């Protein structure tokens, strides 16, 4: 299609064209774009300190420009022309409104302010702005300066492109400006790296990151190009003010209507504020279209737009008045009841087998028809002897080892030789029915292997000869891309048929080699140091295509990601704990935990290697097994009664001496909790589920509460401790500078507190998980890690799960301790009584379950079954190995 000249159009629009651009406008425009990009980088770097909705005032700044620098020429009135006898005062007012730009600026100001108010509805993330180290005033200044630069850039671009005569010339001019700006920004970046003596590349090659980087560049580039070209052509056919006002109106009206629909949830507690915002936005914009002479908006006639706005307001008002925010039953009480039933159902499914025959049948049904491994009968007798309540449900073992079925045994053995060379890897050797280890020089590592050998020795006579590599560090190390693991797992999940087993060996070999392994395409070298940013990207590659995390890692650390949390929550209470451990639907979690916000300084492999670890996140591919570390607390002998303990929440830890990063300071899970409880500002607010009397019953509704006021309702002891008495490591000094403060270490907190938080360390799960379960208290567990017993824990039955974002912590604690008699909230007396009976029941169930299903004997049963599976996987004849009941064998 040929682009035609638009001279005819310009002849009719000459009076509306801006002044002819000067020659220096183009280089000035390029310079301003580069400066704006630098401002944007600085603002995004400290996005947690920004003000929501500042960008809504862009139309107002353009209106001010029109008022002072782009005034309409006054119409020349012929003095001899007779006055219209049918004219009225209203006609004179209309004529004045259309001629003067002061009313237009006022209307745009109201529109911008309405959208600005609506932007403040978004709940804030617990990723905080530091009052000690962040320059909040400077960041906000850069926000306003950036919006002013946006207005300047739009005006300059409009004045330059409006005087080009064809669409083709406009696009050519625009592409030249964008190219020059890109080159200038790139040169500035390179110059800055050289000036600071920083390398422009990391020198490391990450498997799969090139693909995801190219995909991001293409998708974002195409979206940016379409947006810029569309906005430019739109602006040249009208004016910058019309374009930005329309865009701001659409965004504001959509956001306000969405908030009206959210009323009654924890995201929106106000009934009328969203409606007021919608009224402001929906009335000011039609006024602007009338004053500005816009006969249509996006091809919608002005009259039709007015009818749409009236209809939208009627619908919104109806929803606002009729929608009830009342919740009949507290979600925590509902979850406690549901999970009590679910725990009984889970236990029945996990303990079906009472005879060997049933165990074999159950195994084959749950493993796609594959026979159990050799000596399965020995394992079954061992499990019965150890009084294991879990006989059939070992899903974690299946998840961990299935991908290795897609690798040839020779490849697995090659991988074993690779991990043997890694530092902090111990080797357990099982030969002639005995287990031994490689005697590491480090005493703490030797203690770990001694405990593991002790566990294995109770059944080692029934194991085939093998060697296994043990990761002695807390951090997992195997992080293969999802595509490789999925391909291997699909291959491994299908046991070979009898026909395949009798095929010629050459054909069988070809079938096995059909599956390309990750080692074929990887470098085979470990990544010795991975920055926090690259580490997050590598974990995103471990998610399936189409998942939120694989698509993009969120940069918006300021706002609470409701779409991320709602997938596993009921309101703001964590509902599906197992699903919450999966990072693939919640990209914001990479900014909210020390593990994700610190560089990975252990050797990291992107290929599937046989390495056993004590814990991992769902992204990693280490094989889980029970490990007893020296820092694991001993079994708790808590003989204190639950009712005799103090009704308060406890957590204390020493700061860990890890390197401090920007994200770790503001988003680390421990820093955020301590700051939330001890150092919240007067501006920090959070939704809480509060009770009120409705007749004789108690109903519930969400209300926005200041975090400082909420903290005063509860007895808490959340703090860092400094047991050494000195403060010579960077993290300790940071805590002092941030005014988090230190407290004296509390002795025997598990014996004195009813509720205690259990938080991960920077590298792994808390060593207090099992002691907390064994105590007569209620553990509030917030974690991202999996251990061998994770699948055995039932949330709301054995412990209370807490979302890593902490947005439901106050409501959860309020359900157990109650709010009645503790003062007013937002001017209202509270009627919510504590559910002590539910708390006592959870404490009892957690302790009983820890003494029943997470004993040392259960570690042995789990480890025995895992090593039987592994012994078959590494055997060259694994497709013919299996346990089959013989005739006459006891069933």
TrEMBL record:
GO terms for molecular function: transferase activity. The keyword Transferase applies. SMART domains: CAP10. The chain crosses the membrane at residues 105-122, 142-162, 174-192, 212-235, 247-266, 272-291, 303-322. Keywords: Membrane, Transferase, Transmembrane, Transmembrane helix. Residues 585-870 form the Glycosyl transferase CAP10 domain. It comes from the Eukaryota. Belongs to the glycosyltransferase 90 family. This is Glycosyl transferase CAP10 domain-containing protein. It comes from Pestalotiopsis fici (strain W106-1 / CGMCC3.15140). The lineage of its organism: Eukaryota, Fungi, Dikarya, Ascomycota, Pezizomycotina.
